[in-house]
Amino acid sequence: MQPTWQTPRPALLWMLISVVTTLALHVRHLPLWLLGAAALTVLWQIQVYRGAWQYPAKYIKVLLTLLCFGGVLSSYGHLLGLEPMVAILVSGFSLKLLEIHHRRDALVLIYLAYFIIVIQCLFEQGIVTGLIVVLGVTIVTAALAGLYQSNHNNQTDSRGILGAWFRPFRSSAVIIMQSLPLMLVLFIVMPRVGALWAVPKEQGSGVVGVSDSMSPGDFSDLGGSSKVAFRVEFEGDIPAQSALYWRGLVFSDFDGRRWSQSGSWGYRDGSLLQWYGDKPEPWDSQATRRGDALTYQVTLEATNSPWLFALATPKPASQDVALTRDFRLYSKRPLSSKTQYRVKSWPDYNLEVSGLSSWRRKMELALPDGFNPETRAIAEQWRQESPDTVALLNRLLKLYNEEFIYTLKPPLLGKHTVDEFLWETKRGFCEFYASSFVFFARAAGIPARVVAGYQGGERHPSEDYLLVHQYDAHAWAEVWLEGRGWIRVDPTAAVAPERVEMSFADLFGENKDFLAGSLLSLERYRHINWINNLRLRLDALDYAWAKWVLGYGNMQTDLLTSILGRLDPLRVGLFLLAAGALAMLPVAVMSLLGQEKKYRDDLDKFFIQFCQRMERAGITRRPGEGPRDFAARIQSLRPDLADQVSSLTALYEQQRYNTATLDSRNLRLKELRLKLRRFRPYLRSKVT
Amino acid sequence: MSSVKKIADTLVERIGAILIGKDQEIRLALACLFARGHLLIEDLPGMGKTTLAQTLSAALGLSYTRIQFTSDLLPADIVGVSVYDRDNGSFEFHPGPVFSQVVLADEINRTTPKTQSALLEAMSEGQVTVEGETRQLPQPFFVIATQNPATQSGTFPLPESQLDRFLMRIKLGYPDPAAERKLLSGDDPRKKLNNLKASINELTLEKIQSQVSNVKAADSLIDYVQRLLQHTRALPQLDNGISPRGGMALLQCARAWALMDGRQYVIPEDVQACLEPVCGHRLSGAANDQEVTSLIQQILNSVDII
């Protein structure tokens, strides 16, 4: 029989609440069976506490552990990656509930709870997440506080049993509040260290975005998602809606079904990436940028891919952002969390105007054999009928305009996607148009490529920034014309010009099926005015959080330099100390004021004064040393003070402990005051 | 007032002449008696436990019996039995040794719990019930029990609830070298004991006992006692703190202590002097006596008197 340690009741309550909170935080990344198992351990612990059940035997615990491992492995298929790791940690955490034999077990559980709560920040960093994490930490601290409050004090709590239950939470809340100022200081001053390790996060789990390949059908999901893709703040005016083509990926490769980026990128003139701040690559001169540049800052939600979005033709203005060979932007790391970057774009540009080299031309004209014979034949025929490239493309666009219908629910296509779409179904959305247009152009001998990204955006009415949603995802074409370089052609605009000129949501606002999947989305109710306002307010708050809190790392250096003049370790360290001391000052003052309350009356103040004077003379009263004992000690150490001390002590003792002389109290107080005034033990020469 | 101090000093001096070098313990035993409590002396054999009890009763002029507790002692051996009287043709009660003013219960932990509880009932009620008839014990009634440390073999340690009936528990300990020398070179203390004369009588003792409850405990002193009690209840080393009954006992002893010092009011030093004897055996959770002593010292050092 092992010695059993009983968890204090309030501590157990708060421990269980912590476990539930911790699990609730991670509900979205955990498999359902794990939540069930965790609930079982909570129940088990409750039963153990009630004395109804026993803690499981060792072999059962081993079995449960193995089961959890197996479960995680079968749920995710692998163990590497953030989600499976969190799942393993959480299962270990909940199994720990089955062996709380000592206080140290409870402590392990509590420390793990802190860790697991903070892990939540790897997944989400929104303002709501921040508040929830603070609440979670408060609850876990309450469990920790409860662990150190003994059972007996609970019964004597003046606020009754409920007060006893809540006492740990009260002390925890006070501790958290007291630490807030220090937290702020650390937030402002602590240097931001880059990620020490990268955690691979599950690809595509719940995060929608433009994917790195496109086959008609992909984008119909995106059309329905009202999540924010990114937000843009322009220095100056926001350009017209029809000019907002956010280029993300360029697809030059077509295998008959799927458009993808050129295999091994296929480029042969210099490095593919030109990092911000580096010397321009030779190919950079292929872009002619004219006129005024647009400068803007993009706050991109996590996408788990490195593609960044920008207007043509961009130049990065942030660290760790590169310009690619096809003049898009690329991030050094896949974006696992919200990211900010600055861009300069020249809307007036020419790309590769001086001509395409033969390998480039070959790349942009390549077509897979054995696909879409009809389109190839017709393109060939049109080419012969009108040798003028522009006229040929216009003929195709006219065809779109006259015979095609824009729809989000196109019929399925067979093997020859372009043939079937162009000559049979004639219904589809942007991908279908971009794909068929580029295929047709290539078949007619015109270099062309598909560009994927976003189009348009919603102007925030009060905060002056642009909101781009996932449903703004778009695909369009670029064709290369002799003497003009790459020209953007949006075949979708030929079919449904409103799609480009209006925001996507305005276009489909009346259609109830659009966004049918998200009943709870505020977006769905945007035609109700106040809900729409609320939605925009919330978005503005979220954006401010992203800009000032999450994006603070970018501003930190500037801010600290402006405060300190120059950044060196000594200055930063001193600033940290000073600001920390300043932040903790109110707490210190409050606790000092709290102390003062102990001293109740003049009499005690006299005694304290007496002790202080003795302290100056080198004799300190020990805590718990009574006046009489103290006087005896003084007399043995300083015989010269004997008379004064004994009369003072006798007076004090009489006043303090012999209430019979209460009547003459005021008179005696005066006497005491006079005697004390003359009492200067630290001026040795005078007294002796 | 000062008469109590004088009486106490005389008593200490007289008893101290026999039990050499243990003035502090004698004072505590007297305080316990004045506070109408019972005394438990715990120490190894041969430390003078019995001598203290005998001297005390002789110096106080009280009737005295001694019960040597053994493992086969029965309750009837303590409280007495009714014996058939052939002359009268009726049962006659023969009072046991407990019917005395000072009862020395020697080695109380040698006997069985059943017998222990017979004595302990008498201690708490001041009366005994034999064969359905309740009989009052003489007044004043003062039990001095001695006990060997429970680690010795063949003992039945007293449970906490019964320890609580003793107002004080004191230890005698080895005498210091000077006192021991005096003891070795002097006469046999037992001889002196026979010559000891009573310094006070029952009446005086009763007067002193009633004076104890009149000693004043000011608000600030009660505050201090409360802080002490609270502190013991919050100590992580202890399972339980001092109970309210323990707190009352502490204050009562401090009063007696103050009175013996010639004061009509209690000061913190009185409380501090009484804390270990009164509360040492009421604290459970400490491993051994040394730990209790250091714990009490720690409590005294950490609770401020103001």
Produce a short descriptive summary.
The complex is a heterodimer of chains A (688) and B (306). By secondary structure, chain A is an alpha+beta fold.
Map the helices and strands:
The complex is a heterodimer of chains A (688) and B (306).
Chain A: H1 9-25, H2 32-50, H3 58-76, H4 82-96, H5 103-123, H6 127-147, H7 151-155, H8 160-189, E1 213-214, H9 219-222, E2 228-235, E3 245-251, E4 253-254, E5 259-260, E6 273-275, E7 287-290, E8 294-300, E9 307-308, E10 314-316, E11 321-324, E12 329-331, E13 339-345, E14 348-351, H10 358-365, H11 373-385, H12 389-403, E15 405-406, H13 417-425, E16 427-428, H14 430-443, E17 448-455, E18 458-459, E19 466-469, E20 473-481, E21 485-489, H15 491-495, H16 497-501, H17 504-508, H18 529-550, H19 552-564, H20 569-596, H21 602-616, H22 627-637, H23 642-657, H24 665-677, H25 684-687
Parallel strand pairs in A: 15-16
Antiparallel strand pairs in A: 1-5, 2-8, 2-19, 3-17, 4-5, 6-11, 7-14, 8-13, 9-12, 10-13, 11-12, 17-20, 18-19, 20-21
Helix pairs in contact in A: 1-2, 1-5, 1-6, 1-8, 2-4, 3-4, 4-5, 5-6, 6-8, 8-20, 11-14, 13-14, 21-24, 22-23, 23-24
Chain B: H1 2-18, H2 23-34, E1 39-42, H3 49-60, E2 64-68, H4 75-79, E3 80-85, E4 90-95, E5 102-106, H5 113-125, E6 127-130, E7 133-136, E8 142-147, H6 160-163, E9 168-170, H7 177-185, H8 189-195, H9 202-212, H10 219-234, H11 244-260, H12 268-279, H13 289-302
Parallel strand pairs in B: 1-8, 1-9, 2-5, 5-8
Antiparallel strand pairs in B: 3-4, 6-7
Helix pairs in contact in B: 1-2, 1-3, 2-11, 10-11, 11-12
